[in-house]
Specification:
The chain has seven helices and ten strands. It is globular. The two termini are about 30 Å apart.
Length: about 210
């Protein structure tokens, strides 16, 4: 698959590393073109099976999967800016909608970042929640404590979730289908707890949420 990652910061780089390692071509887009170019140059060595890593701007053609590796609020702004270009695309929301004090969620109790995004994207775009529970450093490593990362996925379109699951699996992680898009509410709340616990546990953004059984 061709994957466009909008936002070439730490999370964008982490997701791009896993995608490229899984043989998927990655294009970085960032508000700062130099940041996108640097991310592409740094990640080329991670690409396997003929995958390419490049940089572009928002005017370029988008990939089959578009990852919005940006903050909550910015994801909605970008979706509106792209408009009809997102029609027919799988749009991955990774945002955790933290409030200003980082101790709660900014979304309404009956919504989530992913659901807010779904209301903003063009008709025909398929929003999937994924990667919000995986920290950037763990994505680059692909594991924590010798365990594959679990990536929780929520969405209303089965084919869209299958594509994201394939990206996850090819990147050496485990995809967990959490159900319809409204399950993003629980996934985002779950990650809020993990963020809050970083100071308590002293894990320095290197922990992971893992289902064992």
């Amino acid at each position: 698959m061709n994957v466009t990652i909008i936002g070439a910061g730490n999370m964008g780089r982490g997701i791009g590393t896993r995608a490229a390692a899984g043989g998927h071509s990655v294009t970085f887009v960032d508000a700062n073109p130099e940041v996108a170019e640097k991310a592409a140059a740094d990640l080329k060595a991670a690409a396997k099976k003929g995958a390419t890593v490049s940089a572009a701007n928002l005017d370029a053609e988008l990939g089959d999967v578009v990852v919005l590796a940006v903050w909550y609020g910015t994801n909605i702004e970008i979706a509106k800016q792209l408009g009809a270009k997102l029609a027919g695309k799988v749009v991955v929301d990774i945002a955790n909608p933290l409030n200003a004090t980082y101790d709660g969620l900014a979304t309404a109790a009956d919504s989530s970042s992913a659901e807010d995004l779904a209301k903003a994207v063009a008709a025909g775009a398929k929003v999937v929640k994924a990667f919000n529970t995986t920290f950037a450093g763990t994505l680059i490593a692909g594991e924590v404590a010798g365990q594959k990362l679990d990536v929780f996925i929520a969405g209303d379109d089965a084919d869209a979730k299958a594509k994201v699951s394939q990206l996850v699996t090819d990147g050496g992680m485990r995809a967990i289908d959490a159900g319809p898009l409204h399950r993003a509410r629980q996934i985002e709340s779950m990650q809020l707890l993990q963020i809050v616990l970083q100071g308590t546990l002293g894990t320095n953004w290197g922990s992971a949420i893992k289902i064992l059984g």
